[in-house]
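call fold(seq) -> tokens
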Amino acid sequence: MTKNPATISIAHWVANLSYSTPDMTSWIALIDSQLARAKSEGADLLLIPEHISEYWIPFAPKDLPLTDEPAWAATQGEQALPLLQDAVKRHGVALAAGSFSMRDAATGQCRNRAFVLFPDRDMVVHDKFVMTPSEKDPEGWTFETGSTLTVFNWRGLRVALIICLDVEMPHLAHRAASLDIDLLLVPSMTSKLSGYHRVFSCARARAVELMTAVCVTGCVAGREGYHGGASVFIPSEEAFGHTGIFAELPVHNNSQNAGEWLLAKDIPVGAIRTIRHGDKKAEAWPGPWDASHVKINDEGKNT
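ret:
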């Protein structure tokens, strides 16, 4: 791929977490098959969902308490990472490998960590900023929050990675607005239909606010009957077809196979960059906008 590419193609796997993988070998084989498909269809990157490690639960110790799952999953993740990296190099396709529990080297605590693995550079990680109630439950999972957003360079693109609930945070979007991001990747897991709509609606808003492309992928079935889909959102400009939806796989909560698939061919990152940089005029977008000068007149506060 050339420097500052005009387009990028991304495969989205809405994983069926009820699909059987009885051991780590079979799970790696499943991921390998998805990478092979992505390669055959001309994808540059494969995006898979948050908490992809739920596939590992069938081979967890019997009666493993919920409170011990993050620590156990972290040990499995340490084994999985080099195997995933081998698969990525073998197929030559980058993998946004969802997320799973990993222990932070500095604190020793488990974090919900997302990974992007590459055939041609070092991996990038992101520790989820904002925990759901189930991710900070003393009687269930307990994850430590992350504090760093990494904007990384890959094949001429400026890319960022966040996880699910992170995309719902307006102040994070404000901080990211000045970072000149070409592509935002959002692996997700949402139990309810309402959760799906929160995440995907906010991801669509981020595409407008940041003048960028946003790819979001969820999962289905599993222990909680997850609702998921996949979408590529772009700015709502006439030049890009008005709607802001470049590609979409509708929300669903089950699958008859390993999961549904969305291939987004030739996402126009270059044309979006041209507008973001001001080389072509946007219809209304004013560029990164800072509200620090805005005064608040809250009449209710004085009553």
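Residues 18 and 185 are 24 Å apart (CA to CA).
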